Amino acid sequence: MASWRSLYVFYDAGIATLAQSYLEAYGIPVFLRQEGVARAIGLYFGPLAHTTLLVPEDRWEEAVDLMVQFLRGYDEPIGEWARD
Predict the structure, then answer these.
(1) 46 in Cβ contact with 10 (< 8 Å)
(2) Rounded CA gap, 35 and 64, in Å?
(3) Other CB atoms closer than 10 Å to residue 55's CB: what's the count?
């Protein structure tokens, strides 16, 4: 079983889903983790509704390179790098 590592924390669940699709297109499995309270009250963007993108530990460095490319498409901050 693969060990998962946090990669990026998004402030918008929709953009997190786009990033998930982007990485999966390159063959990297992705798991999105969103705070249960945020989902329960319908928050989908903003710091309180953050969504963490996780990737397998053995694919983390490759995922970092791809995430840098993905983030180049945004002028404003859409999240922050995860701190493990």
Answers:
(1) no
(2) 23
(3) 25
Residue with tokens 């982007």: 22
What's the sign of the alpha-carbon dihedral 34, 37, 43, 46? negative
Q: At 66, list the tokens.
A: 């791809």
**Structure tokens that stand for 64 in this block:** 């970092």
pLDDT tens-digit series, residues 18-72 = 999 999 999 999 999 886 555 556 655 666 668 899 999 999 999 999 999 999 9
pTM for the full predicted model: 0.83
Yes or no: say if 54 and 14 are a contact pair by the CB < 8 Å rule: no
Which residues have CB under 8 Å from 31's CB, separation 6+? Answer: 4, 53, 54, 55
CATH of the structural domain 4-81, one choice from 3.10.450, 3.30.70, 3.40.50, 2.60.40: 3.30.70
